[in-house]
Amino acid sequence: MNESVRKWADTFLPPAALCAMSAAIYLVFEYVPTAQGEGVVQRIFYFHVPIATMTYVAFGVVAVASAMFLWRGTLGWDRIAHASAEIGMLFCSLVLITGMMWARPRWNTWWTWDARLTTTLILWLIYAGYLMLRGSVGPTDQGARYAAILGIVGAVDIPIINRSVYWWRTIHPAVIVGREGTSGLTDPRMQVTLAVCFVAMILLYLWLLVVRLDGMRLRDRVEELRQRALREASALGTAA
Amino acid sequence: MLALIRKDLQIELRTKEALASLLLLALLMLVVLSFAFDPTSALRSESAPGALWVAVTFAGVSALNRSFVAERENDCLQGLLLCPVDRGTIYLAKTIANFLFMMAAQLVTVPIFVFFFNLPLSWGLVGVVASLGLGVFGLSAVGTLFAAVSVRTRAREIMLPLLLLPLIVPVFIAGVKVTARALADKPLADVAHWLHLMIGFDVVFLVVGWLVFEYAVEE
Amino acid sequence: MDNLNFLFAAYTAVWVLLFLYIHILARRNRSLEKDIEELRALLERRARER
Amino acid sequence: MTARVIEARDLGRTFAGVTALDGVTLEVRAGESVAVFGPNGAGKTTLLRLLATLLRPSHGTLRLFDQSVGDGAEARRRIGFLSHQSFLYPDLTPLENLEFYAEMYRTDAQRAHQLLDDVGLTGWAHRPVRTLSRGLEQRAALARAVLHDPDLLLLDEPFTGLDTAAASTLMRMLREAQARGTTLLMTTHDMTRGFDLCERAVILTNGRLVWSGVLAETSPDALVHLYEARTQRGSPTVGASAARL
Predict the structure, then answer these.
(1) How far D33 CA lies from chain A's nearest CA (Å)?
(2) Between chain B and chain D, are at least 3 CB pairs below 8 A?
(3) What is the C-alpha to C-alpha distance for residues A114 and A100, in angstroms, rounded to an integer?
(4) What angle do CA D25, D29, D31 make, to 5 degrees?
(5) What is the pLDDT of residue A175?
(6) Which residues of D touch A144 (CB under 8 A)?
């Protein structure tokens, strides 16, 4: 990311994301009509679905950035992968929480082993492991490479997991599972609301990404200065 | 590559450590799971495949954990990397060696499993072994890669299962399904899609592992 | 309607987690900036003493 | 005729932003022996591992045996590496270890027996490496390093932890290798041994080459003096130009 893009992102993204989020909240609670026969909890869906989509996008970014890092060896890609994984985890948690809040009144249960739910849970576990791995090796070249390997393997695994979990549940139809209420989206106001929520989540993701990357850059700078201070201190020490 | 596999087997035969602990652990898991699932109940044919796969998976993870510990002593992995062979070849050899260990352990585990769960001896067991072969190979393909990674992390004993278990969920589910089918002595044609899934998983992750292994062992 | 609770709970959870995350990030970035300032001051002081 | 065995240009390596090796330029011709002196953390080991293609350089270029390195497999066939770690499987015997490595290098396994005699391990060949003393293990490691008769021998602190008998065996083997025309590059703390074995030396500090010269043109005392002067200067300002060979 070059300097001008960053500056632009720093000034533009926070207010844009906040405005979009406020607009989304307003639309969800005031503007949009409740879908027929769905009850008021159906409104959760306007945040739930865009966040879920952005979770996949975030983990997709992790995979691409990881592959680029292994290929080119540029630390910048590694930073993007790390930041995106963290935000993906945040979003993934939110998907699970909002999903449960919806499932409880709707299906009368907090959790069902529905294919999508299960895939999301496994996704959460994989990337929890990813962040653990990062924490365990520390910010070294090795840690970056290990994380990149997991970032790629995890992404390759997602479709396979999804397939297997889907078969697992459909062959064993123990719990009756309703699909999320996509059928109710005939009203144009609903479509507008969903679109705004999508935009809001995309902006939010980008904003968080920029903030996290800024943090990493600052940490690098601190490390660099610390090294310099240390070198000079040892130089002074031997001269004295 | 044959030399590499032979070397791993040679070390194993010398120490018998991994194989013994692998066997013992699988056995223990089966015993403990028998308590949990009550193998005398009529439901045993439902719970038996799950018990077998839990035992295989956890014993396998601990065997994988050990597979790079031997390479760490005296920095042997460095010596290996100094040899004029491709890193991908080292990965393939390690994967096959790990696969062979785990399968060797199955030769003992499966009969004991049959006795413990009081299962009929039938041709269905061939299907069980086939599903174990495919599943264990997938476990070995992903596991070898991450064993190389986790061996250099802090708390490596816990790191490997943490990373590995969510990744092998497809193999686990498929293995349980095929095993159940085979134990019921029904034709495997009905679970062909699961077999395909396992084969696909094995191939995909063997290729991915072969491609990225060099990054896992590089300093 | 009782279901309203779940709706509010869901959105509250979203906001709380988001703000928590942003708060942690901002605090970490601020402390890093402070570190940079301190180190820079240290290096400058040393350079002057030289 | 004098082929360039090592040709490093501006070779550097950073680990997570910390520079371990900072632009080293070094040329070694076939048959030369070069000692690398330097304090701990100067980047000696990093340099050796880069040359052994165990590490990839962050910047700069490396050519070995007048060829670009590529994936390294070709170059590795002609490189022997001896470090203070033995690279031997503790549960196998020295003979089994050597036979395994002989297969990996695709050389004659018969050499293994011969070599074990050469390094004085006759009678120990059939005990697991784990049961050997440090000196004996290092002898076996030496046999491993020269098993495939390498053209370039990289030695990382080879004398550390060796008893006198093992050290003199090592000296003898290295002399023989030199006589066969093997190129040597070794890192060491031990200036006298370096003087004994090598005709050229370089001094490495803070990841930079700060001095390089022909040992015949200087004396051990002068070199020690020089070493102390160079390595204690914190900022390697003199280094850059002096490092050119």
Answers:
(1) 32
(2) yes
(3) 12
(4) 140
(5) 40
(6) 16
Contact C46 A236 (CB under 8 A): yes
Taking all residues of chain D, what is their mean pLDDT, rounded to a whole number? 81
Residues of A contacting chain C (CB within 8 angstroms): 25, 28, 39-41, 43-44, 47-48, 51, 90, 93-94, 97-98, 101-102, 104-105, 204, 208, 211-212, 214-215, 218-219, 221-222, 225-226, 228-229, 232, 236
Residues in C closer than 8 angstroms to A44, CB to CB, are 6-7, 10-11
How many residues are listed for chain C in this entry?
A: 50
Q: Which residues contact A221 (CB under 8 A, 6 or more apart)?
A: C32, C36
**Rounded Cα distance, A135 and A147, in Å:** 10
- Whether residue D16 and residue A232 make contact (CB cut-off 8 A), yes or no, is no
Query: Where on the phi/psi map is residue D82: left (φ > 0), alpha (ψ -120 to 50), or beta?
Result: beta
Return the minimum-mean-pLDDT range out of A32-41, C25-34, D178-187. Answer: A32-41
* Distance, CA of A65 to CA of A74 (rounded, Å): 10
Best mutation target, A137, A164, A165, A167, to test chain B (most B CBs within 10 A):
A164
Cβ distance A231 to D235 less than 8 Å, yes or no, reads yes
Q: Do B3 and D103 touch (CB under 8 A)?
A: yes
Q: Find all residues with CB under 8 Å of D115, minimum gap 6, and list them.
A: D98, D143, D146, D147
Within 13 Å, how many C-alpha atoms sit on residue D198's CB side?
Answer: 31
DSSP B107-149: HHHHHHHHHHTTPPPSTHHHHHHHHHHHHHHHHHHHHHHHHHH
Q: What does the block give as tokens for A70?
A: 């292994």
Chain A touched by B88 (CB under 8 Å):
no
Map out the domains of chain B as residue ranges.
Answer: 2-217
* D77, D79, D91: residue with CB nearest B11: D91
pLDDT digits (tens, 9 = 90+) for A104-137: 887 778 888 888 888 999 999 999 999 999 988 8
Q: CA A136 to CA C49: how far, in whole Å?
A: 41
CATH topology assigned to domain D1-70+185-245? Rossmann fold (3.40.50)
Query: Largest alpha-carbon pair distance within chain A?
Result: 83
CB neighbourhood size of B196 (10 A): 11
pTM: 0.86
> pLDDT for D117-142, tens place per residue?
888 888 887 888 888 888 888 888 88
Q: How far apart are CA D8 and CA A163, in angstroms?
A: 51
Domain with A98 in it: what CATH number? Answer: 1.20.120
* Amino acid occupying residue B214: E
Residue showing tokens 């490691």: D141
- Of D79, D87, D100, nearest to B74 by CB-CB distance is D87
A224 touches chain D (CB under 8 A): yes
Report the alpha-carbon distance of residue A208 to residue A205 in Å, rounded.
Answer: 5
Q: Which domain holds residue A116?
A: 3-239
Q: Report the number of distinct structural domains present in chain A.
A: 1
Instruction: Determine whether the interchain pair D76/B11 forms a contact, defined as Cβ–Cβ distance below 8 Å.
Output: no
Q: Is D117 left (phi over 0), alpha (psi -120 to 50) or beta?
A: alpha
Q: Which residue has the higher pLDDT, B215 or B116?
A: B215
